[in-house]
Amino acid sequence: MNKLIYIFLFSILFQSCQENVDLSLYNELNNVLSKRHQYEHSKRNYIDSLTYILNNGEGTGKDRYLILQDLHEAYFSFKYDSAIYYANKMQVLAQEQDDLFILNNTKIKIASTLLRAGMLVEVNDILGSISEKQLPKQLLVNYYYTKSILFFDLHDKHAGSIFAQKYWDIGLSCLKKAIEHCPLHSINYYSFSGLYALKTGDLALAAAHYDALFKNYTLTGRQLAVDASTYASVFKELGYDQKTLEWQLKAAIQDIKLVNRENTALKNIGSQLFVEGHINLASHYLDIAFNDAMLYGAKLRQEQVVQILPSVEAAKAKVIEYQKTRIQRYAILSSVLTLLIIGVLIMLFKQLRKVNEAKSVILDQNSAIKENIKRLREENLIKEEYIGFSFKTSSDLIQKLDEVRQDLENKLRSKKYEELKKVLNRGMVKKERDSFFESFDKTFLSIFPEFVVEFNKLFTNENKFIDDTSKALNIELRIFALIRLGICDSERISQILDYSINTINTYKTKVKKRSKVNNDRFEEAIKQIESI
Question: What is the pLDDT of residues 249-271, one digit of tens each?
Answer without folding.
Answer: 888 888 888 888 877 888 888 88
